[in-house]
C-alpha cells in the first residue's frame, strides 16, 4: 500500500502545474493549397499558433515577406512556409522581348532587347540589344523592362 501511495504522489507531482508553459509563435500558413507559379495574396493566408521549438530557421513568419511572392514549390494548406519554397516573381523571362532603357541627366533612350536570363525586380540580367546584337547587362525595372547601368565616365558597358 505504501508503494502505491508513493507512486501516486510521484505521478501527481509530474502531471500537475509544475510543468513550464511552452513558448508559442503565431505564423502565417496557406489557407488553401497554393500551386507552383501562383502569387501569394493576403487572402491566401491564415494564422496558426505553433510551439516556438517547432519552427525551423528557414520558416517564413512575416506577412510582408509572403504577400506578393511567387510559389516555387506547392504549399499545402496549413503547412509552415519555408524560404526555399517562395521567391520574388519573375518580371522578365529568358527570350522575352523587353524594353531596354538607358538614362543619363541629359538624355533617355529606349530600344528593344531580348532577355538572355530570367529576372525578378532588381536582378542584373544579360540582354541582347536587337539593333546592335551586343549583349549587355541591365537591371530589371518592371514587367518586361530593364535599365542599362551607365558607368560613371558616361561610357556604356
Task: Outline the structure in words.
The chain has 157 residues and is mainly beta. The longest helix is centred in the first third of the chain and has 14 residues, at 2-15. It has two domains: 22-87, Antifreeze-like/N-acetylneuraminic acid synthase C-terminal domain (Type Iii Antifreeze Protein Isoform Hplc 12), CATH 3.90.1210.10; 90-148, SH3 type barrels. The protein is built from one helix and eleven strands; from the N terminus they run H-E-E-E-E-E-E-E-E-E-E-E. Strand 6 and strand 7 form a beta hairpin. 16% of the residues are buried. The protein has one helix at 2-15, and strands at residues 24-30, 45-51, 70-71, 86-87, 90-92, 97-103, 108-115, 119-120, 124-129, 135-142, 145-148. The strands form four sheets. The protein has a five-stranded mixed barrel with strand order 6-7-9-10-11.
CATH superfamily of the largest domain: Antifreeze-like/N-acetylneuraminic acid synthase C-terminal domain
Quickly name the level 1 CATH class of the largest domain.
Alpha Beta
- Spatially, the strands of the biggest sheet line up as 6-7-9-10-11
The rounded Rg comes to 27 Å
The total count of helices amounts to 1
**Structural class based on helices, strands and sheet pairing:** mainly beta
As for the CATH topology of the largest domain, it is: Type Iii Antifreeze Protein Isoform Hplc 12
Secondary-structure element series: HEEEEEEEEEEE
Whole-number average pLDDT?
86
Calculate the terminal CA-CA distance, rounded to whole Å: 91 Å
Q: Please, how many domains?
A: 2
Amino acid at each position: 500500500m505504501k508503494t502505491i501511495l508513493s507512486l501516486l504522489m510521484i505521478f501527481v507531482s509530474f502531471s500537475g502545474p509544475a510543468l513550464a508553459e511552452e513558448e508559442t509563435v503565431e505564423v502565417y500558413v496557406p489557407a488553401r493549397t497554393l500551386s507552383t507559379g501562383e502569387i501569394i495574396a493576403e487572402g491566401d493566408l491564415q494564422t496558426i499558433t505553433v510551439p516556438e521549438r517547432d519552427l525551423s530557421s528557414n520558416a517564413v513568419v512575416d506577412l510582408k515577406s509572403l504577400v506578393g511572392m511567387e510559389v516555387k514549390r506547392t504549399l499545402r494548406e496549413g503547412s509552415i512556409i519555408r524560404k526555399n519554397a517562395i521567391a520574388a516573381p519573375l518580371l522578365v523571362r529568358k527570350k522575352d522581348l523587353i524594353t531596354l532603357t538607358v538614362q543619363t541627366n541629359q538624355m533617355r533612350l529606349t530600344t528593344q532587347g531580348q532577355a538572355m536570363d530570367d529576372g525578378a525586380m532588381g536582378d542584373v540580367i544579360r540582354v541582347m540589344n536587337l539593333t546592335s546584337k551586343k549583349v549587355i547587362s541591365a537591371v530589371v525595372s518592371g514587367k518586361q523592362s530593364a535599365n542599362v547601368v551607365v558607368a560613371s565616365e558616361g561610357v556604356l558597358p
